[in-house]
Every structure is written in C-alpha cells, then in structure tokens.
Design a protein that fits this description.
Radius of gyration: 18 Å
Strand content: 5-15%
Bound molecules: nicotinamide-adenine-dinucleotide
Low-confidence stretches: none
Shape: globular
CATH architecture of the largest domain: 3-Layer(aba) Sandwich
Strand order of the largest sheet: 3-2-1-4-5-6-7
CATH superfamily of the largest domain: NAD(P)-binding Rossmann-like Domain
Largest sheet: 7 strands, parallel
Structural class: alpha/beta
Length: about 270
C-alpha cells in the first residue's frame, strides 16, 4: 500500500471502476486500492463483485461493491448515491466495461450493433455525465484535477476485420474523450479525461474473441488464432491485466497531471508496425 492516490492533505481519493468483475477491471480495482484509493467496484455480474471487494479489503485496501449496468441511466444514479453514501465525492472514474462480437459486416445484426454501442460507448457517456459535477467538486476542493479514464482499444485506432462494430464503439470512445477534454478546458472543469488503448489482453474477453475467430473460420483454429495474435505483438506476448491496470493507475494519478484528451496506447508495439 502506498499513497500515490492520496490528496495533498493525506486523505484518500474515491474511485469507481465499471466492469470490475472482469480481467482488466479487477486488476485495476486492486491497483487503485493498493495505491491508497477507496474503490467502488461495479459490474452487472454481482456474484463475483462481493468476493472482489472482500479480496481488496483482505489485502489492506478499502472497497465497496455496487451493481451497475452502464447502459442504464437509472443504474448510474443509484451508483452515484452509493458512492456518496459510502465514501463521498468521486475523484477517479474508470469507464472500463465492454463487450465484443466477432462477425463480418454482412452478418452483424442491428441488435449486435446496438448492444455493443450501449455498453462500450453509451455507458462511458452516461458515466461521465452522471459523475461530472462530483468529479469537478472533488477536484476544486483538493486543488488537483479529478481523472476519467475511458477504455478504448487498439481497435479505436486501427481497423480489425470481423470486429467492425467493436472498432466503431472504441473509435467513439476515443473521440468523445478528446471532445470532452477540450470542453472541460473551456468550462474550467477540474477534470481531466483520457482514453487507454490496450493491445490484446489475456482475459476471458480475449479468449472468447479468439475462440469465435477460430469457430467462424476466420482463423484456422482457436489455438492458431491465439498464436497469431501473440506473434502480432512485437513485445512477444499478450498483455496481462495488471500491465493495463498500471497504465490506468498512471492516468488516474497526478503523475499524468498534464495529460487530458490523450490516447494512451499500451499495446506491446502492435500499432507501431
Ligand atoms: N481483453 C482484451 O484483449 C482487450 C483489449 C483492448 C480493450 N479491452 C477492453 O477492456 C475492457 C475490459 O475487458 P476485459 O478483457 O477485462 O473483459 P472481461 O470480459 O473480462 O470484463 C468485462 C466486464 O464488463 C462487464 N459488463 C458487460 N456488460 C456490462 C454492463 N452493461 N454494465 C456493466 N458491466 C458490464 C462484464 O460483466 C465483465 O465483468 C473492455 O472495455 C474491453 O473492450 C480488452
């Protein structure tokens, strides 16, 4: 435990992570708590949330679990009430929840398209809107800007076959983030906002995606799809969740205090080629 996420007066920042039951979200919640934040872990998967909060507390951190469907404005309001009642004003919002579908353009249904936008893009917009005033108030009170970290992907920067809907949602995250950063500057909001763009991360999400690529015949087999993805990262492997969590920690903390509207690639060199 260290105090990277304490305010200058020594008090803890309050953080909320969406999709915290998943691979990157859980690693991020642990990292933020380990560095001194009081963390509200949220997800639609409630069963594993309680265990996650308990494991953070067992490691000496502070955490609370709260159900949150990021596509539902009412659910966000309930999460806001939970945060206020449990820890106070939010200082760090990590819009991490996300889903994927592996389909050609021809086979992507309108329902697929809308389901992905609801979670990946609308969820980020609703969360930013819901907590913006609280983030600003916390930033003003502490004299340091609050931080929003939006989960994009390399798919927000480059095109990937059979993931057109997913790429579109992640591109929306990237550009919303930039426009919001410019607006927050114009309105003197004490809030920074940046997007993070991982390469492939070895989570249930990636495993499902690789299986679907293999099953759909877009790759010879799931195993070969996995090997091809691994080899496509010049660093020689997929990322682990904690490697992305450390980058999110940087964006959440004052170490990145001059960054807003930035897109942070954490992709093992994937897009450098
Ligand atoms: N794994 C990768 O290769 C990779 C690469 C780049 C970006 N990302 C992004 O990182 C984020 C996390 O991915 P992960 O790999 O940890 O996936 P994951 O599947 O392990 O976790 C995603 C979590 O989001 C939750 N979720 C789904 N719908 C939700 C909703 N409506 N409201 C709230 N939560 C919901 C799921 O329950 C799950 O716990 C996603 O936005 C994903 O697009 C992942």
């Amino acid at each position: 435990m260290n105090n990277l996420l304490h305010f200058p007066d020594g008090s803890s920042r309050v953080a909320l992570v969406t999709g915290a039951a998943g691979g990157i979200g859980a690693a991020t919640a642990h990292a933020l708590a380990r560095h001194g934040a009081q963390v509200v872990v949220t997800d639609v998967e409630q069963a594993s949330l309680t265990a996650l909060a308990a494991s953070i507390r067992a490691a000496g951190g502070e955490a609370s679990a709260c159900a949150l469907d990021v596509g539902d404005p009412l659910s966000w309001q309930q999460a806001r009430e939970h945060v206020q009642a449990t820890f106070g004003n939010l200082s760090i919002l990590v819009n991490n929840a996300g889903i994927d579908v592996v389909r050609s353009v021809a086979d992507t249904t309108l329902a697929d398209w809308e389901r992905l936008f609801r979670v990946n893009s609308t969820g980020m917009f609703l969360g930013t809107q819901c907590f913006l005033d609280d983030l600003h108030v916390a930033g003003e009170a502490a004299g340091v800007r609050s931080s929003i970290v939006n989960m994009s992907s390399i798919c927000g920067n480059i095109g990937v076959a059979f993931q057109t809907a997913y790429c579109a949602t992640k591109g929306a995250v990237r550009m919303f983030t930039k426009a919001a950063a410019v607006e927050f500057g114009a309105l003197d909001r004490m809030v920074r906002i940046n997007s993070i763009h991982p390469g492939t991360v070895d989570t249930a999400f990636a495993a499902q995606c690789l299986t679907e690529l293999g099953e759909a015949g877009f790759a010879p087999s799931p195993a070969e799809a996995r090997e091809a993805i691994r080899a496509a990262h010049p660093i020689g492997n997929m990322a682990q969740g904690d490697e992305i969590a450390d980058a999110i920690l940087f964006l959440a903390s004052d170490l990145s205090r001059f960054m807003t509207g930035s897109e942070m690639l954490v992709d093992g060199g994937y897009t450098a080629q």
